[in-house]
Design goal:
The protein folds into three domains: 4-69 and 261-323, no CATH class; 72-254, Lambda Exonuclease, Chain A, CATH 3.90.320; 329-372, no CATH class. Helix content is 49%, strand content 10%. The protein contains 15 helices and seven strands. The strands form two sheets. The protein has a five-stranded mixed sheet, with helices on both faces. It has a two-stranded antiparallel ribbon with strand order 2-3. The radius of gyration is 24 Å and the shape is globular. The termini are far apart. It binds iron/sulfur cluster. Iron/sulfur cluster binds at residues 39, 42, 44-45, 292-294, 298, 302, 304-305, 308.
């Protein structure tokens, strides 16, 4: 077997081939990494993200453009809210961190807000690491890092990640801050949106943990993050501490699985390429050569959702009915198989899913008969 460095170079070369000649790699961000964790079994998404394929461009080239992403209006409103939260050297943001996460510490007056300007993502990552180390040399002080840059090794290549803020507490511990524009109504927000923010924050926490592990003594990365949102329908900030331990564990497991990108790539036919410049039929064949596990949740997390949903429906795949239904159906993977099992034409009667389907079919037949006799 070739040494790891040679294998890493070969994998990078293979991934560049899959992306297409001269197609720049799309950087993996925390949102993409978090979405990967949301559908861990999808080899299609794993290889496309691993190869840095621009999935929005790919979806358009396949004739199924994504309806994904924020509107310009939402982006502008979100940026204005973030600027308000971070005004005056982040005074309000730090007050919220103190109130929600570290009440026993001294209130954050005169916090350090270092300049993180540098050239390129590598330069910004190095600058962030330097300032986090420097913050450790100021025990008792609060430090706010506004839009730091973190790096995380994903399948042999570096993903650069930019949290909204990282706060260094007086005890030297680090907290991730996420600023979102969805409202906190009476102290709570849409659970789906909070879940997505928590998965994104978990990626930042993992990147911070990689960095912290290189420092002596290693600072503690807190597993409760601060989520800051507009209060009710105003643009006043409100905050909530969110425990992301579960999301962190799931994301860490999934990122470890991503190392198997090499295995997915090995199974693809020679010459497979996902360049959006290719004719649609060639591109469709390339995309279809990688197995996918479509679920309705893909609609809110993956740019290829419309393409995969159409394919999944054409194949009659039960995954398009949603994960709960899929889980109930055991080894039955298509609607045709489910119906045949319910009619008693196929399937092992000892299989609990088959038995439940036959019982349901019998009850339905009984109900229809009774209705017809009335
Ligand atoms: S939309 Fe398709 S590629 Fe994306 S995660 Fe779902 S099944 Fe995978």
């Amino acid at each position: 077997m070739p040494p790891p460095r040679t294998r890493g170079t070969a994998l990078r070369h293979r991934l560049a081939e899959l992306r297409g000649p001269d197609v720049p790699a799309k950087a993996l961000d925390a949102r993409a990494l978090a979405a990967l964790a949301a559908n861990p079994g999808c080899a299609r998404r794993a290889i496309l993200d691993g190869a840095g394929v621009n999935k929005a461009a790919l979806a358009s080239a396949l004739g199924a453009p994504s309806a994904f992403g924020q509107s310009q209006f939402a982006l502008t409103r979100g940026n204005a809210f973030e600027a308000k939260v971070k005004a005056d050297g982040g005074a309000e943001l730090l007050r919220l961190v103190h109130e929600k996460l570290d009440r026993s510490a001294e209130p954050p007056t005169g916090a350090r807000v270092p300049d993180l300007t540098a050239t390129g993502p590598q330069g910004r990552t190095a600058r962030t690491a330097l300032e986090l180390r420097e913050a450790g040399a100021h025990p008792g002080a609060w430090t706010l890092l506004d839009h730091p840059m973190l790096a995380l090794d994903v399948a042999g290549s570096l993903a650069f990640l930019e949290p909204d803020a990282v706060v260094v507490h007086p005890d030297g511990s680090w907290t991730v801050v996420e600023i979102k524009s969805f409202p906190l109504l009476d102290g709570s927000a849409d659970p789906a949106k909070v879940g997505a923010a928590a998965r994104q924050a978990a990626v930042y926490v993992l990147a911070l943990e990689e960095l912290a592990a290189r420092l002596r003594p290693a600072p503690r990365v807190r597993h409760r993050i601060l989520l800051v949102c507009p209060r009710d329908f105003s643009n006043l900030p409100a905050a909530s501490a969110v425990d992301i331990r579960k999301q962190r564990a799931v994301t860490a497991r999934q990122l470890n699985r991503l190392t198997r990108i090499e295995e997915i790539a090995e199974k693809l036919p020679e010459g497979t390429c996902f360049s959006p410049e290719l004719p649609a039929d060639e591109l469709t064949a390339a995309v279809e050569s990688v197995p996918a596990t479509y679920a309705p949740e893909c609609l809110s997390t993956c740019e290829l959702a419309f393409h995969c949903r159409t394919r999944s429906r054409e194949e009659g795949a039960v995954t398009s009915l949603g994960r709960p239904a899929r889980a109930e159906l055991g080894g039955l993977s298509t609607v045709a198989e489910v119906l045949a099992a319910a009619r008693g034409e196929t399937g092992d009667p000892a299989d609990p899913a088959v038995a439940a389907l036959r019982r349901a079919a019998a009850l339905r037949a009984e109900a229809l008969e009774a209705a017809a006799c009335r």
